[in-house]
Records
---
Amino acid sequence: MFRKIDDRTYASPQITVADVAEAKALGIAVIINNRPEDESDDQTPGAAIEAAARAAGIAYHAIPVTHAGFAAWQVEAMRKALDEAGDQPVLAYCRSGTRSTLLWALAEAAAGRNPSRIAAGAAGAGYDITPVRAQVDMLAAQAG
């Protein structure tokens, strides 16, 4: 269920409280929720995931992303959450994992990472960054 997109980052569809134990077993240090609350009736509330994460000693961040797109504050918040983890594994989730992967790609580009490597990492996990590729290229160029 958790798809590895780079050496330390996983993206996933919606997780449950029980999935937090799997994250802990993988050594996940930070869980990032990119799903707005009440997006669908079947999603586990962020507060429940947060409580389970904190009980397991995992940091938790909510950076909700709607289908309207990405804002600079979301990219910065994702970058900070990734930086907080250092070299420890991170799990980001949303409904399908796509928004989490796209936001990760933007945050990595803002940190000056290579856009082709970002795209390759996402593709290796089954995600396509084409919808944000122009932004990824721009952010990487600005950071470089």
Note: Helices lie at 17-25, 46-55, 72-85, 98-110, 115-124, 133-143.
---
Amino acid sequence: MIKFIVTGPESSGKTTMCKALSKHFQINHIEEYARKYLENLNRNYNKDDLLKIAKHQKKLEKKNNKINIYDTDLITIKIWSLYKYKVCHEWILNEIENQKSENRFYILCKPDLPWEYDPLRENPNNRYDIYNLYIEELENLDANYIICKGNNRTDQAILKISKLISNI
């Protein structure tokens, strides 16, 4: 099984890319749980909510298909926890360490698209700071990843995924 994780800062085209990749390859697209959780919260979230989101997101990764496309994973929650609260729950850190042995491939979306307002988004002015945290995290994990940028980012991802799945 291979997991393709589309990741990156807010408003960088992740969800649009996930839907396009899912349609192109006719494979499952596993949505980001945080959006659903936060839309139904009826209050401001806090750092304890991030652990709840992480645990549910991890459950969504239990799909047993040969190939899945994921709209983010636990490293997003780790980065956000550290960025916003300066601390990340040990459970999240342990799960990220445990998943290093999995067949994961990251598609990091560069925030070079225009910012689009969304009531859940918080960072219109520091997307590149957060993007750099993603690069640092992926490098520290020794993760397999590519950076997709510009208006043809989905085409870039399709080419790379096609090469990877042709070897399965």
Note: The chain has a mean pLDDT of 93.
